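REQUEST ID: PR-0412
SUBMITTED BY: lab tech R.K.
PRIORITY: routine
TASK: structure prediction, single protein chain
INPUT:
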Amino acid sequence: MRRRILKMMIASLVAMGVMFGVPMTIITWDWFATTAHQDLSQRLKRMSEHVLAEEAAGRAVAPADLDLEQFRLLLPPNGRLTLTYRVPDPRGAGGFRNGTRQIGLTFHGQGVAESVNLGPNADLTLAVPEEDVRPTQLLAVLTLLVAVVVAVIGGAVVAVVTARRLSEPLTDVAQRAGAMARGDFSSDWPTYGIDELDRVSTALAEANEEIALRLEREGEIVGDVSHQLRSRLTAIHLRLDELTLHDDPAVVAEAEAGVEQVERLADELDELVAASRADSKARVAIDVESVAATLIRDLAPAFAATGRTLRMEATGQALTTYGRPGRLREALSVLVDNALVHGDGECVVRIGALSATEMVRITVADQGGGVPDVLVPDIFRRGVSGDSRSGFGLSLARALVEADGGRLELVSRRPAVFSVVAPMYPVAAAGESNEPDAVDSDDVRRVRVPHR
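STATUS: complete
OUTPUT:
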């Protein structure tokens, strides 16, 4: 940034120097030439006034007899005074002959000259060599150029100081903003003495404080919610443990299944809490088919109780994405649960790959009446529901999917088909690690999920 500001300011200074320097050079050159002509004109004027005064006093002489020596003191250094006159030709015939008299320096070549008329038959010409005027002109032009160069250099120094004064605070603000984007809210936001930049710094400081406060509150809420849920899960776990001592084998089997579900829910709760507090780049490889199969095994009895079926269709290809398994499972469970509550007929979870974009696609479809048109525009908005339920499910599901770089969309209204698209992670890359599910965040290919 400093270099760009410096280049722009120096280029402006050079342009201004050229724009003003060239015309001023021409004006200065002509001004000194004009001054030389004016000086010669003033000297000739005094000479002519002397001649006129002599004529007025009755002491006029013929032009040929005019004494030029009386004007020597009015000659400039290296000047030449020439008298040109016409007298009648002594041979008669009514003609005239020209005569010339001269005092001062005799020179050849170009000169600066001025003339004055002393009457119908006489002219005075005063001239100086052009070489006497050129040094003065060159000196003046050189002085002007030096002044322009000094001005440009002075402007460049000011530009360097200004660029540094602007770029260093901007760089500092950018670094502090980058630290805030990475989750570091401990930086102070000083003022820099630049009104506009101070306003930006103040706004970012307020945003920094607000974000830190909200994150702190969210952390407290997450801790309180997890504590309350763990307490309830512990109570349910104790009740189910008591049922495992029942005499009826069927009751014992159901109680053990319930205990397994409670333990799994507790593990997923711990994982979600840890994920909310962990670095967003800390991802693991996820076997999509395994997650979907576990979900179907858990929810299939609920579908069977209503006379419906839940099944999975997969290509057989090992498809792996990256993220948090709990997030993907929770998002899919919301979609399948909505199909159970609002849909009808068979519910199918299909898993496939979008090879053109290197994406994994998971769709959840049922054979019900679909989504009402009035709900379609706001179906993923928090609090929007088709019945008395909270309406937070789809909003939470989309947030969980997008947190791992994916996208959740409604791709068909009737029947309802929801699609989860997530970046694909190669199985080979995951298999090279000592821990099969571990993924190095530096090796993860982060691709943009297409929006439908």
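NOTES: The two ends are 38 Å apart (CA to CA).
REVIEWED BY: pending
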